[in-house]
Structure formats: C-alpha cells, structure tokens
Amino acid sequence: MKSDKLLFLAFLTATASAVYIVESLIMGLLPVPFLRLGLSNIVLLYLVYQQRIFSAFIVAALKSIIGSVATFSLLTPILPLSLGGGLVAVAVMSLSLLMRPRFSLFGISVLGALAHNFTQLILVRYMLIRHDGLFVLTPFLILAALFSGIVTAYLCIYIEEKIPIFKAAKDEKA
Fold first, then answer.
1. CA gap 119, 86 in Å, rounded
2. How far is Cα 59 from Cα 93, in angstroms, rounded to an integer?
3. How far apart are CA 21 and CA 37, in angstroms?
4. Which residues of 8-21 are buried (b: 16+ CB within 10 A; e: fewer)?
5. pLDDT of 86-136, one tens digit each?
6. What are the tens digits of pLDDT across the range 79-95?
7. How far apart are CA 79 and CA 77, in angstroms?
8. Closest CA to 87 of 119, 111, 109, 114
9. Is residue 30 within 8 Å of 50, Cβ to Cβ?
10. How many angstroms separate the Cα of 32 from the Cα of each of 26, 27, 88?
11. Burial 58-77 (b: 16+ CB within 10 A, else e)
C-alpha cells in the first residue's frame, strides 16, 4: 500500500515536472519572458484539494528543481523564483482549506495563483530589480492570476473526471 502511494507521488512529480519543462520552453519563445500559465500547478492544486499537503510541498519543490535542471536554469534566479512562488502558493492554498465558509476549487486555485505571482514579484524586487517601480506590474499580475487560477481549476476538475488513475486515487483516500 505504501509503495503504491510513493509510486503515485512519483508519477505526479514526473507529470508536474514534464508540464513545467514544456511550458517553460514554449513560453520562453514569447516576447514577455515572465509570462506563464502555470499548468504544472494543476498537480499541486489536485494534491492540496485532496488534503495531501505534504505531498504537494514535495511535488512543488521537486518540479522546480527538476525543471530548472532540465531547462539549464539551475544556477539562475529562475529556481528561487519558481521554488518560492510554488511553496508559498501551496501554503496559501492549504490554509484556504481551513477557511469558513469553505472556498471552492476555483477560489483555492485563484488564491494560489495570486500568492505565487506576488511572492515572485517580491522576490524579484529584493533579488534582482531594487526599484519600487516594479510594482506597476501588480494589476497585470492580478489579472493573470485570475485567468490562470480559473483555467487551472477547470483543467484540474476535467482531468480528475477523465483520467482513471486520479479517480482511483480519490476513491482510495475516501
């Protein structure tokens, strides 16, 4: 039983890492280098919503590290930005599960996207661009978080309904 859970966690980590890598390579071709939809966060959202918080933190850390290695950005600011944003997003999504009235999957996803974007903005401010003018991006980042949070939640629901391995894992938890 324990080996099945470990295997499923490895599968989710590999899936999140692969999506992170592909998205990084595709989005890197766009003229806005910091723009990403964050599709690898579908896995994190799924784990948080299934209340597998520790697993979500593990996947968040490993996907950032594996993705940075695979895209040759391990020793660049991309790793701490990705790692910081991912871990804070998991923490905020996890805490949002405790709120009453309870947030929907869409609300949790949008909160995670907002946390991710603002964490990265603050890290960029203190690590790279030491100027408050950077915060002019805040309205754009809020809109991007709303859009990506809604898309991520929708895709999470769709994948959970359509892919048998996710249904089995959900039924096993119940």
1. 9
2. 14
3. 12
4. bbeebbebbbebbb
5. 999 999 999 999 888 889 999 999 999 999 999 999 999 999 988 898 899
6. 999 999 999 999 999 99
7. 6
8. 119
9. no
10. 12, 8, 23
11. bbbbbbbebbbebbebeeee
The amino acid at residue 101 is: P
- Cα three-residue angle 100-46-61, rounded to 5 degrees: 105
Amino acid in the structure at residue 85: G
Amino acid in position 131:
H
Q: What is the DSSP string of the chain?
A: -HHHHHHHHHHHHHHHHHHHHHHHHHHTTSS-TT----TTHHHHHHHHHTT-HHHHHHHHHHHHHHHHHHTT-TTSTHHHHHHHHHHHHHHHHHHHTT-SSPPPHHHHHHHHHHHHHHHHHHHHHHHT---GGGGGGHHHHHHHHHHHHHHHHHHHHHHHHH-HHHHHHHHHH-
**Domains, in order of start, for the chain:** 2-173 (1.10.1760.20)
Structure confidence by residue, pLDDT tens digits, 31-86: 776 678 899 999 999 999 999 999 999 999 999 999 999 999 899 999 999 999 99
